[in-house]
Structure prediction request, 354 residues.
Amino acid sequence: MSMEPIVMGIGGSIHDFSSCLLQGGEMKCCIEDERLLRRKHAFYKGSSYDLIKYNASDACLDATGLTWSNLDLVVGNDILSKFYYHRLQSKVRRFERINHHLSHAASAFLPSLFNEAAILTIDGGGSNYEGQEEVESVAQPLEVCTLGYGNGNKIEILDTQIGYRYDARPYSNAIDPVTDSIGGFYGVLTYVCGFSFHEEGKTMGLAPYGTSRYFPEMMKLVRLSDRGRFECGPEQIKRLFEMRTLWERELDEDRQFAIRADLAWAGQCIVEQAVIHAASHLKQLTQSDCLCMAGGVALNSVANYKLYKTGLFKHYFIQPASGDNGTSIGAAYYGWHVIMNQPRWQARSVVNHG
Prediction:
């Protein structure tokens, strides 16, 4: 066995499981479980039994010729389904869990070439948030947007924005709504436009075919407030949910398509404004010229381009695996650079890189 320390990151939440293996700080293998199971997002009834038998962690070890005993450290995030790491504690020397948004942030900043950078993490919802003074009894508080700053091998969390996950039963179990969340809003919009779980990419693709017809009405449901925050409460989520009937009651397929496209256009425009709003506040906090992004909303390439066109930041790194699949990358690099305190030898100044 090589004397170089070996770190494995395991990622996902209740879906998009993955593993990433670093040896001496170099990525040797990284794979998603959906590639092994041949099922998108590794999310289906019975997936837990399949993943207990063999998953991406096993595949990484097989690909590198290593065994569980060779691993010096395994890092996962704190909302990863328990069944995914149930074997680890008896097989590895050291296992650590980190915050979900921190794993996203690490996946964006630590592999980047920036010595320092602002870090923007936006998704539907991450770790349970225990710092909220007044917690609604009917809802679960979650981190939905995290503003951070990276310098060297350190990541500082500057602000965490909180949303609330509500019960899906009042919504016919069709959605799992999260309030005050850009990603949560887009998830509900995706259902409203006629798509299903994890089909937000279809909503983004549909939006260019629409018009601004419903934008004023939909914009009344949200508020961009101070500190870069996005507000969309439970009553507003309910009203957005009900907008699906606008096209469902139409019999003509062409009219149905036009309404769905107009709804997608309006929601996409709101998300673009919300992302720029959050990034603007982050710019004020950090004054950095560099921005790193991750979280499911960072997969919205149109919003990313609109942000780029603002000129707020000069340099960008957007983690290609911005969804929960990329948290294994963040966990692995966090383990290597932060927990094991290894320097980021690849980071360099980007001042002269255009």
